[in-house]
Amino acid sequence: MIPNRKIRCAKPRCGDVDRGSYMVPGVLVDPASISILMVSEAAPPDPADYFYARGSPLFQRTTVLAFQDAGADVSTSRDILRLGVYLTTAVKCGKKAYAIQNETVAACSLLLEEELALFPNARVVLLMGDVAIRGVNAIAKRSGEPRVIPSGSTYKLRNGEYSFRGMRALPSYLQAGPSFFIEKSKRRMIAEDIRSALDAAGA
């Protein structure tokens, strides 16, 4: 299966993102092999920086470093995929400003819901940052389900027990992009959360 052949935005109406950088993973993946879904914030402004782009894209470099920090023997996004981890974003277009409007996150959560449903064997969903958390909470709200992750600071929520449609839900910090290099304490917590996900999934 190639996800971007299954997931398409039929009614683009978000004013605070760049439609020119719209991206859903175009990588060949066996849905049955995926045990962890790692949801980051938004697609990069430059598609050449996306997880599965050719060469050494920025999202791949920082995500590989995060997995290496967690003790995983990986060098590329495809190595991570072979671990059973699927990488995607909550918002499918690059953002125009630092923040992303709630309306945009909610609209794109329709696509995210379809995408996550492609992987019936997933045991863990890693929510990398506030936008990913908001996206999954929007899916739950639309279906009349309780919030997946309560409101509050991520560092206070990380060790809680949360679930989403049969999966363990782990809130963490954004690992994709230049912000990964800024705060060493967050980088350490990201590694801990990835390790927890790998252990929970038996990866």
Describe this structure in words.
Helix content is 33%, strand content 17%. The model has no long low-confidence stretch (mean pLDDT 94). The protein has a 6-stranded mixed β-sheet. The protein has 6 helices and 6 strands, in the order E-E-H-H-E-H-E-H-H-E-E-H. It is of the alpha/beta class and 203 residues long. The protein has one domain (3-201): Uracil-DNA Glycosylase, subunit E, CATH 3.40.470. The two termini are 21 Å apart. The chain is globular. The chain has helices at 58-69, 77-82, 102-116, 130-142, 154-157, 184-201, and strands spanning 17-18, 36-43, 85-95, 124-128, 162-164, 167-172. The longest helix has 18 residues, at 184-201. A hairpin with a 2-residue loop joins strand 5 (162-164) and strand 6.
Question: Which characteristics define this entry?
Answer:
203 residues, alpha/beta, Uracil-DNA Glycosylase, subunit E, six-stranded mixed β-sheet, 6 helices, globular
Extended strand count:
6
Query: Low-confidence spans: pLDDT under 50, at least 5 residues?
Result: none
Characterize the main sheet.
Answer: 6 strands, mixed
Strand content: 15-25%
CA radius of gyration: 15 Å
Ends distance: 21 Å
- Report the CATH superfamily: Uracil-DNA glycosylase-like domain
Number of domains: 1
| CATH class category | Alpha Beta
Strand order of the main beta sheet, please? 1-3-2-4-6-5
Shape by Cα distribution: globular
Number of helical stretches of at least 4 residues: 6
Per CATH, what is the topology?
A: Uracil-DNA Glycosylase, subunit E
N to C succession of SSEs: EEHHEHEHHEEH
| Overall average residue pLDDT | 94
Helicity level: 25-40%
Alpha-beta classification: alpha/beta
Gross CATH architecture: 3-Layer(aba) Sandwich
